[in-house]
Amino acid sequence: MNAANPLWGAPRIHGELLKLGIEISQATVAKYMVRRRGTPSPTWRSFLRNQVAGIAAIDMFVVASASFRLLYVMIILAHDRRTIVRFDVMRYPTAGWLARQVTDAFPWDTAPRYLLRDRDSSYGENFRKQVDAMGIIEVVSAVRSPWQNAYVERVIGSIRRECLDHFVIFNERHLRRVLSTYIDYYHQTRTYLSLDKDCPDPRPVMPPRNGRVVAIPQVRGLHHRYERLAA
Question: What domain range includes position 23?
């Protein structure tokens, strides 16, 4: 109990032991507790877990088209269920365009408390003013430290490996269409370890009595969704 609950003192642990029917004195509990210096602080992992419902992340990555034009993809990810709240494509991203993306992603009172981002120069003054006006606290990662924004980086890696590496992109419109099909698959079909093998949009379990298993093509046949249908 002492190791699993660093914020608990001897009285709290003693009370829990009494509730378990273990008769022991509080002095004995205090005797065997691990001595710590100062107030214990939560780990980074536990902090993120406690704040996850109020954290979102934004990032961009580059896709080269068939004509060798560079297209920038913007992703906004909510940490709670790893939901891609918004994405868009732009050849020349500006601070004003990025500010509008945040506004459209979080209408009314749905804005998160924190927004993680890197130090890209595209997040200019207009972007910072809009985020501040929405009551969002910006958390800027250190220079060349993508691991500090790991969730959205992981999603970008999945988009590349499971989708874009298998298509030739012709233009902005084509890229939006391909990404839309993958993001639908990402939300409704793809399972995740961090979500206990569930999807961002919870997916029901289909027991064998529901019928035979059928494969439904997703992302233009690149992936499949498996469901049970009655014969």
Answer: 10-41
